[in-house]
Specification:
Strand order of the largest sheet: 1-2
CATH class of the largest domain: Mainly Alpha
Distance between the termini: 75 Å
Shape: elongated
Number of strands: 2
Helix content: 55-70%
CATH architecture of the largest domain: Up-down Bundle
Largest sheet: 2 strands, antiparallel
Number of helices: 13
CATH superfamily of the largest domain: GntR ligand-binding domain-like
Strand content: under 5%
Order of helices and strands: HHHHHEEHHHHHHHH
Oligomer: single chain
Length: 292
């Protein structure tokens, strides 16, 4: 490996761990006597420390190596498209086992910082994690923890009005044309519920894309599909509510076209707040139906 960076050798890793434990012991002991002018002359140091220390977690060697490699990638020593040193080279320089090196590389691959290519010309190629990796992580969290629909809709109400405001401010002509074209398909799909729901999602994501805010776009991408697929979201797609959504989309689109940031924010907020109330209170559906 070239000069300019350094990977910790195995004995250095062990030395760091031992030093960390020793420093922890001393800090704990010194803190105990902070209010005294001097340490007691006669004290059993080991017994006093052992009575007060907390468990010390020593990181695995593979985690330390992964941390060092991650730092080198983030600092630009390895740029996207470059290959990391081979496993053999990493083993030789770090002094770690091949298993530890492979574990470190798996961590980086899971983080989206490298991709592994097989074959004679293969290796660990540096990549940068894209928006999709953030969306996958959030969506996995939502599904694995069974996040309630109500919470997801509250998240939308908190985020999407801002996205609409930013879209009104930053949208390009091409992005406006795309949002308008999706809206036309949305109107045409009013009687085709599955298609209507897919196009509805596409329209909201197109507005998010026009905002130009990458973290918020990733968040929208992550929560939109679970919302669409939620079983208890089906009752918000009655004919009356679909017609109401088309009207709401029309005025939001107008605000974005006219680059009226405040109107785009308010109309998106009103639209999503109404949907949140309906989606989380099925009794409102019954009331609307009886009133009709």
């Amino acid at each position: 490996m070239s000069s300019g960076y350094h990977l910790p050798a195995a004995d250095e890793v062990a030395s760091r761990s031992e030093q960390k434990i020793q420093e922890t012991y001393m800090d704990l002991y010194k803190n105990h006597w902070t209010n005294f002018d001097c340490w007691p002359l006669e004290v059993d140091m080991k017994s006093n420390i052992s009575a007060r220390i907390a468990p010390v977690v020593v990181p695995k060697a593979s985690d330390i190596l992964a941390s060092e490699l991650r730092k080198l990638i983030i600092q630009g020593h390895f740029t996207p498209g470059n290959f990391l040193p081979t496993e053999r080279e990493l083993v030789a320089e770090s002094g770690l086992s091949r298993t530890s090196v492979r574990d470190a590389l798996r961590v980086l691959e899971a983080e989206g910082l490298i991709t592994t290519k097989v074959g004679r010309t293969g290796g660990s190629m540096v990549t940068l994690p894209g928006r999709a990796s953030i969306a996958r992580s959030v969506e996995l969290f939502v599904r694995a923890h069974g996040v309630r629909l109500e919470s997801l809709l509250e998240c939308r109400v908190a985020v999407e009005p801002t996205l609409a405001r930013l879209a009104a401010k930053r949208r390009t002509g091409a992005q406006l044309e795309e949002i308008a074209a999706i809206h036309e398909r949305f109107v045409a799909a009013i009687d085709d519920v599955p298609l209507y729901k897919r196009i509805n999602l596409d329209w909201h994501l197109a507005i998010a894309e026009a905002s130009g805010n990458e973290p918020l776009i990733a968040l929208m991408e992550a929560i939109s599909t679970p919302i669409r697929d939620a079983m208890d979201y089906q009752h918000v797609t009655t004919p009356e509510l679909r017609a109401g959504a088309i009207k709401a989309h029309t005025v939001i689109l107008r605000a974005i076209r006219e680059q009226d940031e405040e109107a785009a924010f308010k109309r998106m907020d009103r639209h999503l707040s109404a949907y949140r109330e309906i989606a989380t209170r099925p009794d409102l559906i019954a009331a609307l139906a009886s009133a009709g």
